[in-house]
Predict the 3D structure of the following.
Amino acid sequence: MKSLFLLLFYLPLLWACMEEQAIVKEDPSPPLECAKTSSTPEEIFLSCQPVAEAGDYRAQFLLGLMYSIGKDVPQDYAKALAWYRRAAEQGFAEAQYNIGVMYNEGNGVPEDKAQALAWYRKAAEQGLPAAQFAVAYMYYNGLGTPQDYAESLKWTRLAAEQGHIDAQSSLGHDYRYGKTVPQDYYKAQMWYRRAAEQGDSWAQQALGSMYYNGEGVPQDYVFAHMWFNLSGTSADRDMVAEKMTPDQIAEAQRLAREWMEEHGKENR
């Protein structure tokens, strides 16, 4: 589970986060101007602090994020939590999620899985995919709650249907091995494929394995080689290559190149 949206340190992604959260909340307000009109983190902090004090939940979340990361301001989990709470009390789902992370990991507060689950659930019920998958994880492992595979499956599916990569890979794994659901190779490859198409190397490797073994799909060494190649698992790729003709290998390499050109992104 990724901690506290660390990637949001990069300002363009931070602004995108603000705009995405407005979609989650169906909030018509414009992007946070105090962040957009400032060129450095120090300027952002100084510009957004009075906006946060005035009650803007996006600015409150931003200050909480900066204090939690400790970049350009001293790291202070107590202040981070205080700002997150002010945003969370206004229903800001990502602030609720980050409070859940703090309680789950014991950052600035005593570790408390039940509190973590409660905050994750607040955000999950607003439709935040990361929070939905966090709730699923807690139920699956019995953290802060009795273990409940049915609840875990429900929240995993909600996150996966919104495109959450880890949730999609998790569903693929569950269907492939009969975890929490009856074994179903067809559904396994379907969910692995959704994550693989988003660049998830673990799902790409799993999908390659399913093509290699003919699980849920016709056995196809060309596609197995392609997905192994994309996943970066050279040992698996070389293993299947031993069973292929030179023309088949060339075709698999062509498909992998075309996939990379079409998607234009590196794997995660």
Observations:
- The radius of gyration is 21 Å.
- Residues 91 and 167 are 24 Å apart (CA to CA).
